[in-house]
Fold each of these.
Amino acid sequence: MKRLVLASNNPGKLKEIRALLAPLAIEVVTQAELGIGEAEEPHHSFLENALAKARHASAAAGLPALADDSGLCVDALAGEPGVHSAYYAGRDGGREARDARNNARLLEALQGAADRRAHYCCVLVLLHSANDPQPIVAEGIWHGEIAHAARGGGGFGYDPLFLVPGTGRTAAELTAEEKNRVSHRGRALAALIARLRNENRA
């Protein structure tokens, strides 16, 4: 596999995935670069949403497709925002504005909460074709806690609130290289790459 379409228009995800796949010399193009619109994500699990996005992008592009569905799951909120992480506080505005609103809503929801445990979850689905009967699926989990205030200018999404265990820093205060080594997406991609190599399908 030399080229695949990424079923996401999230620039943060694209940057991380391109960096992590660089050792395999796989060219990653986004669905937006190919004029492909985003798929609907009506499902209640990361896996179902990732599979729907991958099949949509692969069918439209005629290429292998990689889809990522990920989000933040907060213990005190019964796993919310979960699959609704990207639009937790609504769909209006650009990505940065939505991220700021999402973070503000999360802090409000956790006001006074003693339990601030949370984890990021990433599910990756790789299809060799739109009708691939054996999708390659990999999952990564990154445990942490929710800070009381946003810190750091890196990353995206909830990173300014996500405290990384043992570091005293939020995910937004890590360098890109540090984050890729330990993040949910980094772990999921490492597992995916191992599967590809083991199955000799790369």
Amino acid sequence: MDALRRIAFLLERSRASTYRVKAYREAAGRLLEIPEEQVRFLVQAGKLTTISGIGSSTAQVIEQAVAGRVPDKLHDLETSAGGPLVEGGEELRSTLRGDLHSHSDWSDGGSPIQEMVASAMEIGHEYLALTDHSPRLTVANGLSAERLSRQLQVVDTVNAVVGDGFRLLKAIEVDILDDGSLDQSQQMLDALDIRVASVHSKLKMDSGSMTRRMVAAVKNPRTTVLGHCTGRLVEGNRGKRSPSSFDAEAVFEACREHHTAVEINSRPERCDPPDALLSQALEMGCLFSIDTDAHAPGQLDFQAYGCERAQRLGVPAERVINTWPLEELLDWADRAR
């Protein structure tokens, strides 16, 4: 199972298609349901592929692992995709304690909460914010207040199981609506540790209206982080998208004044904010959060991209809120509100 999970992680890390990854994660899940001695029996009998969810490629991985070998597929991926994603930023990355923007299969992520948590712990994170989408982003299966309430119970269960040393944070990526309000009830927002507020709709709104919209959201006492502020796309299968137009000075001044961190979104297709805006926010005294916006476990390694940019542009570690110990982070988020 570990070999299958590692293969899936490396495929996700290298931005392989979801279809390629799915087979390995599905096979790993099936193995969880089968006693080890039965797996060994099926290997010896050559009948692994009779199990639903296990095909010829995943069966070969299992057979080689059971035989005590490093599976060929895993060896090849470790060689081709297991190295550093980018040169630079290592010093800053070594100071990060967690990630404040991630998605599970409760909204538009590809893996269960437990798998995201397991991978975060393997990376060495002390905490991970589960920030599934809010209700109006229906294309991403956004969570209603009722579904979010159920998810928070799952978070409590996960934290009880993992024990000390790691914390899954109750969080959300909440849509910034046209008028700058947040797309979730106040009661539910108050129940969360972290709130990443992002614009996902009407990205071509005129500059004045977009500025007012973003400033209103940043001033909201429940907003912790301003997510991917320009909304741009610079590569990827969704194509390219120009950044939204807004008064960056007004938005970043509101972030500084109201203790809202500016996200350095590490997804390669976002690379948001652009270098010039990131430098402007730095000069204006803003705090930052270097996040992956991960939609799959392997994407949790994308922090390397954000750290490279932040370190190159001179962002000090003490200005990055997810370098802070958990209690300091939560105390700040609570006081800032």
